[in-house]
Please model this.
Amino acid sequence: MVLTGAGISAESGIPTFRGAGGLWRNFRPEELATPEAFARDPKLVREWYQWRRGVVREAQPNAGHVALAELERRVPEYLLVTQNVDNLHERAGSSKVTHLHGSIFIDRCIECGREMSPVPEEHCACGGWLRPGVVWFGEPLPEAAWQEAAAAAQCEVLLVVGTSALVYPAAALIPQAQACGAKVIEVNLEETRVSDAVDVSLRGPSARILPELL
Ligand code: BJW
Model:
């Protein structure tokens, strides 16, 4: 199993959430990535996601994404669990992908629940506000995706790439895998809160390390 976070897309030019160059240096997460923030200022939150969609559309998958797509072809039992909402894994050719935090390329009506590709209109035909189809703080993860990820965590090897491992329940997959006997390899630019606990910690940019590892 592979667990990815924002760091794998950093070399595609998509800012991470925390740390140097983080997306949230100018915006505190709780200002924009909560249902409360959306209720308070839906226009601001929608504008932020519109801006991010533009950034993501311009971006290209990097050598790290491509290496994971190749890994999928080499490993018979494999699942890529991502916290990212940018779809760059699919664009790089990965197909066994589970999205824990939704997709930035879906809008959902907060009244009727209808899902659609993002449109310029702020409201659904039913009159409800359209919000991005992502998982905000305090919201449950999509049940099927979480079940799939938790089952895949009963694996032999877990590769953890470009995540600060600060956000739960995604971060809990790491000790869950270890409890099932998995060896854990971390690929990250920096030390993280799980670096001491993993079996192998590879320090460096994932677009370089993942092709080397492959
Ligand atoms: C590189 C690199 C390069 C850079 N190469 N590496 C248990 C304990 C404590 C708290 C909680 C808990 N359980 C739940 C919580 C609360 C909360 C939480 O975790 N809070 C913490 C902050 C403390 N969790 C939730 O609220 C979750 N929901 C939930 O638990 O619901 C329960 C519930 C059940 C039933 C009913 C109701 C509720 C939901 C979490 C949703 C997270 N959403 C976001 C936004 C998604 C939408 C969007 O994109 O806008 O997801 S927050 C943000 O953080 C985003 C990310 O997916 C997520 C993780 O961040 P990630 O990917 O790790 O990025 P960074 O920036 O943190 O790290 C980047 C890393 O890359 C760094 O380490 C760099 O060094 C590295 N790097 N360049 C390699 N080139």
Notes: The mean pLDDT is 95. The longest strand covers residues 102-109.
